[in-house]
Amino acid sequence: MNQPRQIFKNTVAQTISDLIARGSSILLSFLIARTLHAAGMGIYSTVIAYFGLINEATNMGAVTFLVREIAKNPSKANRYVVHFSVVGTVVSAVVLVLLWVILPYLGYSADLTTSMYIIALAIIPGTLNAVQQSVFVAFQRVEFMTYTTLVSATITIGVSTGLLMYSYGVVGLVVTFVIVQYLVMAVYFFFINRYIVPVRWEFEFSFAIRLIREIKTFAALSVLGGLLAQPEIIILSLVASEEQVGFYSAALKVSNLWLFISQIYMNNVYPVLSRSYYLEDRKFRIIQDKSIKYLLAVSLPLTVGIIATAKPIVNLLYGPGFEPSVLQLQLLACSIPLFFLSAVFWRVLVARGEQDLVLRVRIVTLFTRLGGSYLLTAPLASLGTALSGLANSLFNTVLLGFYVRRRGSPLHLLSLGWRFVLASSVMGALTWALGHQLQLWVLVPLAGVTYTVLVFLLRAFSPDDLALFRRIWQPKVDGTG
Questions:
Q1: Do 441 and 344 reside in the same domain of the chain?
Q2: Distance in angstroms between the alpha carbons of the first and the last residue of the chain
Q3: Count: domains in the chain
Q4: pLDDT digits (tens, 9 = 90+) for 277-319
Q5: How big is the CA angle at 422 (ends 417 and 427), to the nearest 5 degrees?
Q6: pLDDT digits (tens, 9 = 90+) for 224-273
Q7: Is the same domain home to 194 and 310?
Q8: Is the dihedral of CA 343, 349, 355, 359 positive or negative?
Q9: What domain range includes position 141?
Q10: Angle, vertex CA 166, rays to CA 252 and CA 184, nearest 5
Q11: Does residue 26 sit in the same domain as residue 80?
Q12: Alpha-carbon distances of 300 from 65, 122, 338, 469, rounded to whole Å
């Protein structure tokens, strides 16, 4: 299989895997909200937020570092996997013990404390899963991750449904999550050992020490990424009730559902962007502007549509008792275009070799995010958390945009996006007006058709854009391209 085809195959596989994971998470939230209500959802969301933070930190940048090293020399895959697994297991075990020590002092309820003790058992397999995922990515066999995600999501939803039917509560769901993590670890090991590279024991203490020295920067970025992985939920769990965590988590799951679009799109554009800047072929700014334009074309109608239909969305997914989530969802929806823009901006900076500026922004926004979240959450509970999240997204995007422009890359946001803003606004007004007369399953397609027609009438896409779309959907068949 040629390289472009391989990249396309892995992109599709990664997209499917991401959609399965996000879809199963939404479905599980639906089940929890309908049976355990806001408090139960708050407990489960807090536990998963802690796991995400710790797992991101303990994998020490495994995917980023190992993909690079294994891709450079596949023959060393076993050596890196074994040593990284040992180091990761030791670090995870230390973190597990520390978590168990501090848990009694956090002041959580009995159910939440018990769930936290149990979720700690998933730290080690979570770290090893990150190591094994790097092998799939490095060898371009991401389809194995997709298979595993599908099976694990099916098991999780099936078992969780049964547990909720028999009133086992949140603790049973957390136990299921931990068991599935170990199953995923075993399945990953089988796929790697059978289809990619046989795993055999080879450990040298001196190499492990050298490895630790090499990954210091990656580990620091990983810890920073962990701290930036939904810290609002953890802060909210410490200063407010479990119901408030449930309200915020319900809104966050819907707003965050769409963020994978910009992630996957920019993951594939980034190599081309970097190569263009290196070659100085004058395409760098064109790629930058088109990326901004296309992501605005997607994110703006999503934001307006969610704002207009927030109430029926919350009622459909979570049922009665989640009314506070409506306003929070509308606020968080405003972060979607900001996230899409920042996905372009930080990659532009890295492509120009200015990754130090990205790190600087992340450090600054970490402090503003934690501080702002605490200051607003303490008096306003989950509403303050939503406001803080939106404010920090805006600050992060503005700061990245400032650095992009400072080094000679103008940002024509108004000229690139005003037509999409107008089309989205008209679509949103129509959707809002018809919201009380039409069901959601009718309203959403109608909004999509309205937006598409308006984009066409406003000629939001240039002839160059349309020609590019035709080349994507109608590839040459003569063997030349």
A1: yes
A2: 15
A3: 2
A4: 777 657 888 889 999 999 999 999 999 999 999 999 999 999 8
A5: 125
A6: 777 776 788 999 999 999 999 999 999 999 999 898 888 878 876 776 77
A7: no
A8: negative
A9: 1-229
A10: 60
A11: yes
A12: 35, 38, 10, 20
